Amino acid sequence: MTSANHLLEVKNVETHYGKIIALRGVDMTVDRGEIVTLIGANGAGKSTLMMTICGTPRASSGQILYDGEDITGMPTHEIMRKSIAQSPEGRRIFPRMSVMENLIMGAETAGNDDVDGSLDKAFDLFPRLKERRNQRGGTLSGGEQQMLAIARALMSKPRLLLLDEPSLGLAPLIVKQIFDAIRDLNKTDGLTVFLVEQNAYHALKLAHRGYVMVNGKITMSGTGKELLAREDVQAAYLEGGRH
Amino acid sequence: MSSKSENFFTDCVKDAAMGGLIALALFSVLIGMKAEVASGLGGGLGIEYRWAAVAIAVAVVFGGRLLLNLFVWKTKTPVTEKAGSLMPSMSSLAPLGKYAMPVFLVLAVLLPFLLMSAYGARGSRQYLDLAILVTTYVMLGWGLNIVVGLAGLLDLGYVAFYAVGAYSYALLAQYFGFSFWICLPLAGILAAFWGIILGFPVLRLRGDYLAIVTLAFGEIIRVVLLNWYEFTGGPDGISGIPRPSFFGIEFTRGEGGFADVFGLDYSSIHRIIFLYYLILIMALITNFVTMRLRKLPVGRAWEALREDEIACRSLGINTTNTKLTAFALGAMFGGFAGSFFATRQGFISPESFTFIESAVILAIVVLGGLGSQIGVVIAAIVMIGGFEFFRGLEEYRMLVFGLLMVIIMVWKPRGLISTRAPSITLSGKKGKGISADLVQEGHG
């Protein structure tokens, strides 16, 4: 695999919150057309890595390359305009705005010239949103809000989709629906996905490759199947987790 | 059944009697005995007993508690509930917003003529003055609505921009002899500039912290105006601020005056009517610009910012610029209103720009319903009109005002008009207003 194939490359990144170190030299790559997942326990630094890629907080050392371009020091809003889209942890939809407005917000800064096309696509992916398009975002159920958050991220026609815990607080059936949608997007559009998850079983089943993070460091990596089969992974993250 | 109601009654009486007993114990000392400098005792202290007053006080407590027990506290259907149900519900008010806009607009345009025909030129003057005042507050409310209602940035120092606008015009006119029409845009630009200056350091702040900083900023501006005696005249203020002209035609008696040019008999009411239409047009422009902006990306970005700042950043919105534009635009309209205020009064001093003004403007926006344009109009009429209406009651005015606030906040915690029309819908379909009822208070 050549380095030209890397869409996202994180090189020896360290991040601090004040004096506390959150990431201790993280290396990872996401290749074009891949689904890569990052799993780990609470407080391991998964979300910090995701947010460091987006520019808040800034990495205190190391380098982050997107499509060969150094984005380490860029302000967040400029990073997010580079065909990267993120669905943040806890969904964070706009509760008082309608579903339509939420979706339009996703396309606003991306210079998307085919908003209607993107809308149709979003509604195809999540038909539930079409039914609820004039409803206030805050009145949707948790699963629908997660669908909305993902659909909103997709409105900018990204090449790289960053998902932070899309299964958070959702029923297993809804989780399956959402993961199926992610798989579809990857297969049909070749969308590259970087997925941060607690739900290790589903995430590793979905992903081509996975990383395991412990205490701000990547401790294991491999294909999804490999990691699923490993006993230490099973013991730490999957025990009783096959729901 | 009858024994039950008898029980209920004796319960109430017992409870009231208990209250009366406690009142007796307290009042016999508090009210019953009064230490007095008795003249007959050569300046020594004497005690005067006032048992009648104690009896009255205890009777009031007993009677009051009994009535409350009978009708409010212990009954299954308290009278307050009935009173609550008498108030119009959400759904019955919904169509109001739809028709209120055109009705208000027509009324506002025709107002001077209606007043003139009803009260004559002399009698209508005070009502027109009130209308000008209300419209000024409507404009200020609309201006602040951009910052607070749309962008969700709590600004307690809005009056600072009002002051900047007023002083910009007054000082430019005093030192350079500029006319109102040149100063109006300049005042707006200067106020917007101050909005940006304030905006930069406070961009990281939100909510309570932002409120405190803006509050301080409002005070700083006022204190500077108060103490910079050589430049601003300090507490003496600036007087003799030139009146606006009708596109170069002054409102003066005799040759070349407004009345002369248009072949009318001279009357001082002409200027008042002109001022009224001036502020009405300025306010309508504010409204128009806000309504347009709401449907543009920047307006939607403001609303998104109010909803969730982190989500905004994850969508590539430059939150710094978005906040700054909101601050600058809100400040600009405040500045316009300020220079109008200066030209109307002809005299300004820092006293007109105290914190209470900011509070009143903010109250108008909140009572009207954050982000609702027509709500601001209704709230401004009720509050400013109410202020003037209760002027005769003097010290009870604030009491009534406070009571009104409490009632509105209990009855409609989100303000009078709390629905929000989506700024975009699928083509052809008209979007229905989104009620605020389903979202937690304080969260949108």
UniProtKB/TrEMBL annotation, chain A:
Which InterPro entries did the record assign? AAA+_ATPase, ABC_branched_ATPase_LivF/BraG, ABC_transporter-like_ATP-bd, ABC_transporter-like_CS, BCAA_Transport_ATP-bd_LivF, P-loop_NTPase
Task: Give the stretches traversing the membrane.
Answer: none
Pfam families referenced in this protein's UniProt entry, alphabetically:
ABC_tran
| Protein name in UniProt | Amino acid/amide ABC transporter ATP-binding protein 2 (HAAT family)
Q: Which PROSITE patterns match?
A: ABC_TRANSPORTER_1, ABC_TRANSPORTER_2
**CDD domains hit by this protein:** ABC_TM1139_LivF_branched
Q: SUPFAM superfamilies given for it?
A: P-loop containing nucleoside triphosphate hydrolases
Q: Which UniProt keywords apply?
A: Amino-acid transport, ATP-binding, Nucleotide-binding, Transport
* Presence of the UniProt keyword Oxidoreductase in the record: no
Q: Species lineage, top-down?
A: Bacteria, Pseudomonadati, Pseudomonadota, Alphaproteobacteria, Hyphomicrobiales
Single GO molecular function: branched-chain amino acid transmembrane transporter activity
Family stated for the protein in its record: Belongs to the ABC transporter superfamily.
UniProt keyword Nucleotide-binding, yes or no: yes
Tell me the ranges covered by the ABC transporter domain, including all copies: 8-240
From TrEMBL, chain B:
- Pfam families recorded: BPD_transp_2, DUF3382
Compartment(s): Cell membrane
Q: Which GO terms describe its cellular component?
A: plasma membrane
Going by the UniProt record, its keywords in alphabetical order are: Cell membrane, Membrane, Transmembrane, Transmembrane helix
Q: Which residues form a coiled coil?
A: none
Where in the numbering of this chain does the High-affinity branched-chain amino acid transport system permease LivHM N-terminal domain appear?
A: 13-110
Sample GO molecular function, one term: branched-chain amino acid transmembrane transporter activity
Give the membrane topology: Multi-pass membrane protein
Q: Which PANTHER family match?
A: HIGH-AFFINITY BRANCHED-CHAIN AMINO ACID TRANSPORT SYSTEM PERMEASE, HIGH-AFFINITY BRANCHED-CHAIN AMINO ACID TRANSPORT SYSTEM PERMEASE PROTEIN LIVM
Q: Which NCBIfam families match?
A: PRK11301.1
- Recorded protein name is Amino acid/amide ABC transporter membrane protein 2 (HAAT family)
